[in-house]
Amino acid sequence: MAELRDYKCPACSGALEFDPATQKMQCPYCGSSFDIAQLQDASQDGADWQSESSENWGDDETVNVFHCESCGGEIVGDDTTAASSCPYCGNPVTMTGRLSGAFRPEFVLPFKLEKKAAQDKLKVYLKKKKFAPSSFLRENRIQEIRGLYVPVWLYDSDIHADAVFEATRKRTWTQGDVEYTETSYYDVYRSGDMSFAGIPVDGSTKMPQDLLESVEPFDSAQAVPFQTAYLAGYLADKYDISMEQGAQRANERIDISAGDALRGTVKGFDNVDLRSKQVRMLRGVAKYVLYPVWLLNTVYRGETYTFAMNGQSGKFIGNVPVDGGKLAGLFGAVTVGAGAVLFALGKLLGMI
Predict the structure, then answer these.
(1) Which range is least confidently modeled, 265-279, 304-318, 330-344?
(2) Would you give the end-to-end CA distance of the chain in angstroms?
(3) 76-80, 83-87, 302-306, 345-349: least confidently modelled range
(4) For residue 133, is the peptide bond before it cis, meaning its omega torsion is within 30 degrees of 0?
(5) Would you say the C-alpha torsion 60, 76, 311, 19 has a positive or negative sign?
(6) How far is CA 299 from CA 207, 303, 319, in A?
(7) Which among 118, 86, 114, 92 has a CA at the least distance from the CA of 237?
(8) Which residue, 29, 53, 202, 351, is most buried by CB atoms nearer than 10 A?
(9) Which of 260, 257, 252, 262 is nearest to 191 (CA)?
């Protein structure tokens, strides 16, 4: 693989950056754009490129490591990407050295949306927050917007599942003035082989699992083999949740999904309850992938609020403070409205 420092513009020798809009390497100096495949072909044709197989991200002299003392996060970036604050908590980061270690992803989902899209989404998102303090909406200032590749484990698995359900069917009839109900109980057994593909599990303890899941889904079918070229202009987190640790969460999701799938085949009953279930894995494969996420940090009265946007689809999520006065006003309006309805109903019934 070509070293990141070698991704120079063939026209002007400027440092190329990956452009999510065109999915090409773009030169910010002369405006030229190039397919990554073209750059690889140029390397193979004898230009000043290197191709090598490595378990690392790339040459340990071209990828920097930044450390946050506040949350303990470690992020990486190329020589052209500077980082002054943590994309997770907004606190200052310091460069600790060059990257080494087997953290190289297998695949990456390239960014498709640019920074401006994240800024516009934030404005639209905040306009819908009717109970946010007016001062928050008026004084809101984006402290930092960073495009971050989040480490994710994707699990593929073939399983065999067995389940026993207790099902009931009721029959009701009337004889004379008496109504009778007969309940029949059944033991229902289901068994089957299933395949699961691309079950995502967050590979970073710094990225809240619920925050990442809130901006899902990501289209993993668009994943491409990882190249350091995609990192140009962005930051990337290093996984600190191992494949084995992530597998525990993947197994939970598989277990639940397998039970639901078998439950869906039990039909014609009034009620179905799971009595027992066994899931046996036949084959399991995990892939290390990077997901594109825009993280936005904004500060309000000393508190940092973090928003996230899916770098593929634009799905946006975040938390905002709540104005107690506005909320109290809503309850007041509901109370007054309910009182008016009760008054009108009372007049109708002759109670008032």
Answers:
(1) 330-344
(2) 84
(3) 345-349
(4) no
(5) negative
(6) 19, 5, 12
(7) 86
(8) 202
(9) 262
Tokens, residue 227? 């190249």
Which residue segments constitute the domains of the chain, with CATH numbers given? 1-49 (2.20.25), 160-194+254-284 (no CATH)
Is pLDDT above 60 for 43?
Answer: no
Question: H/E/C letters for each residue in the chain?
Answer: CCCHHHCECCCCCCECEEECCCCEEECCCCCCEECHHHHHHHHHCCCCCCCCCCCCCCCCCCEEEEEECCCCCEEEEECCCCCCECCCCCCEEEEEEECCCCCCCCEECCCCCCHHHHHHHHHHHHHCCCCCCHHHHHHCCEEEEEEEEEEEEEEEEEEEEEEEEEEEEEEEEEECCEEEEEEEEEEEEEEEEEEEEEEEEECCCCCCHHHHHHCCCCCHHHCEECCHHHHCCCEEECCCCCHHHHHHHHHHHHHHHHHHHHHCCCCCCCEEEEEEEEEEEEEEEEEEEEEEEEEEEEEECCEEEEEEEECCCCCEEECCCCCHHHHHHHHHHHHHHHHHHHHHHHHHHCCC
Amino acid, single-letter form, for residue 302: G
Q: Which of 285, 228, 201, 250 is nearest to 58 (CA)?
A: 228
The answer to whether 267 and 84 have CB atoms below 8 angstroms apart is no
Q: What is the pTM of this model?
A: 0.66
What the block records as the tokens of 39 is 């750059």
The torsion angles phi and psi of 144, rounded to 5 degrees, stand at -155, 135
The CA-atom distances, in angstroms, between 240 and each of 66, 97, 206, 243 are 15, 18, 9, 9
- Is the Cβ–Cβ distance between 290 and 150 less than 8 Å? yes
Q: Which two tokens stand for residue 335?
A: 């109370």
As given in the structure block, the two tokens for residue 35 are 């397919």
